[in-house]
Write a structure and sequence with these properties.
This protein folds into 2 domains: 82 residues, no CATH class; 37 residues. By secondary structure, the chain is mostly helical. The N and C termini lie far apart (59 Å). It is built from 7 helices and no strands. The model has no long low-confidence stretch (mean pLDDT 87). The radius of gyration is 20 Å and the shape is flat.
Length: 120
């Protein structure tokens, strides 16, 4: 993969996955694992957290993105996610709201099946 494409992949991941959200997720995962494995030293916890970075994530995901998108397609995606429309979508938590509705619908459907199953 060319250096230019790797840089486009970096921008793509920063714009679409929000580096800050991924970093916060990694922090949470490490914190929860540290609570579960409470005999692990603080120094080891720090080493583990420093090992799993956004850079490491890019290294693992880049081949998938590279195979899926051309440089031109990545540039188009980056342009969209840098736009006011995309900013509005993220600031309004549009995706989160839609996911909540999907979760509620899933729960309602399961309840419907459970109630009808109980009547049989």
């Amino acid at each position: 993969m060319s250096p230019k494409k790797r840089q486009l992949i970096r921008l793509f991941l920063q714009r679409t996955l929000a580096e800050g959200i991924l970093t916060a997720s990694l922090d949470t995962l490490v914190r929860l694992a540290a609570q579960t494995y409470n005999r692990v030293s603080k120094e080891s916890i720090k080493e583990i957290r420093e090992k799993y970075t956004f850079e490491e994530y890019i290294t693992r995901v880049a081949p998938i993105v590279d195979a899926q998108f051309t440089e031109e397609e990545l540039q188009k995606i980056i342009t969209f996610y840098s736009s006011d429309v995309a900013r509005k979508m993220f600031e309004s938590n549009f995706v989160g709201k839609v996911r909540r509705i999907n979760t509620l619908l899933s729960q309602e459907i399961e309840q419907e099946f459970a109630m009808r199953n109980a009547k049989i």
